[in-house]
Amino acid sequence: MLIPNASLEALNTLHLPGKARRFAEISSADQLQALIRGGELSAGPVVVLGGGSNVVISGDLEATVLHIRIPGRELVGEDAEAFYVRAGAGEDWPDFVTWTLEQGWGGLENLAFIPGTVGAAPVQNIGAYGLEAKDRFHSLEALNLHSGCTLSLDRGACRFGYRESLFKTEEGRGLVVTSVTFRLPKGWKPEAAYLDLARELSSSGFEHPTPLQVAQAVTAVRRRKLPDPLEIASAGSFFKNPVLDPKSFASLKVEHPQLPSYPQADGRFKVAAGWLIEQCGWKGRSLGPVGMFAHQALVLVNHGGATGADVLRLAETVRADVRTRFGIELEMEPVVL
Ligand code: EPU
Predict the structure, then answer these.
(1) What is the pLDDT of residue 43?
(2) Where in the chain is the domain with CATH 3.30.465.10?
(3) Which residues of the chain are under the pLDDT cut of 50?
(4) Is 234 an active-site residue?
(5) What is the best residue among 237, 280, 322 to mutate for testing ligand 1's pocket, by most ligand atoms within 8 Å of CB?
(6) Where do the CATH 3.90.78.10 domains begin and end in the chain?
């Protein structure tokens, strides 16, 4: 059941080379539980891989890699306010979103076409165009890798933040998400405040858009800005947008009035990392086989044949340039394995 020396190159969207010391495809929670209870995962580190769209494979991994392929999607409940829809952690996220829209359940359309799996959506608290996974999240089931016990976690227990959750903390690292339930509101209203999306909707003549029309507009914006995963290897945004305290933000804004920024509920300001990187001259520029994408400087792309070391070298160079120019520390979004 555990395969030795398995290549991970086709399993990460940056297409970086690397082998797993041991590898297993997980197609059900029971199968994973049997591996845990049989002691198969107790020797050495365990790495959980979903769609591989948010990882940097740094080389060969001295670990057991579990590729989560757990399928399934169904309506599990309905009340006056919402549909409750559950999906297996291994379901492809964009396919799942399309399926919900086809059933007539709006709610996930702003998150259309984000590469990755359903199980990774809450881990990363994926977000786009004014919506995050947490906004439509109801609960999830996870397995504890040490005890083999099943847990059911609600929204509060998952401790969601900006591209953050319990599962990215020390405490949650031993948990493997096996299924996720979303709450899709019946009183659907479009979330169309994000400037790019609002512009796209109005230029398409969608004044009172349906969920499908919002998804269409999201797709059009993504096509313009983000690389097509079938043509160019990337991991989406490579850095998080930094969140600054009001004082640092105010002095930076005086120096750089063009800096795009978004006030946060806690009084801080999120600033656009893509803009900072572009100002440092990295938009469309390469370092060896990797570079920052020509239409969105926040996206690091592999032009072909890159290794994890090439990616990390470019990441460090960009971080150093942004630090020197703006005094801001960029934080990587993908997880380095
Ligand atoms: N900008 C530039 N130059 C660039 C890129 C962006 O000046 O090269 C400016 C844009 O003009 C705009 C601002 O920066 O004023 C924000 O750009 P954009 O709308 O493209 O969004 P982002 O902040 O760069 C975030 C998410 C994306 C998500 C988009 C849309 C993060 C780290 N990234 O990007 O998520 O799709 O907003 O909501 O929060 C991902 O996480 O992988 C991802 C793609």
Answers:
(1) 83
(2) 73-185
(3) none
(4) no
(5) 237
(6) 233-336
At residue 1, the pLDDT reads: 79
Q: Which of 275, 299, 301, 328 to mutate to test the pocket of ligand 1 (most atoms within 8 A of CB)?
A: 275
CA of 225 to the centre of ligand 1 (A): 9
CA distance 68 to 79: 31
pLDDT score of 336 = 97
Q: Are 55 and 42 in contact (CB under 8 A)?
A: no
Architecture of domain 73-185: 2-Layer Sandwich (3.30)
Q: What is the CATH number of domain 233-336?
A: 3.90.78.10
Cβ-proximal residues to 27 (8 Å cutoff; 6+ apart), any chain: 69, 70, 71, 90
Tell me the β-bridge partners of 75. Answer: 85
CB within 8 Å of 215: residues ≥ 6 apart: 97, 98, 101, 109, 112
User: Is 163 an annotated catalytic residue?
Assistant: yes
- The pTM is what? 0.96
List alpha helices for 24-178, DSSP H.
29-37, 93-102, 120-124
Pocket of ligand 1 (CB under 6 A): 128-129, 194, 196, 225, 236-237, 240-241, 260, 272, 274-275, 278, 283, 296-298, 333
- Ranges in the chain annotated CATH 3.30.43.10: 3-68
Architecture of domain 3-68: 2-Layer Sandwich (3.30)
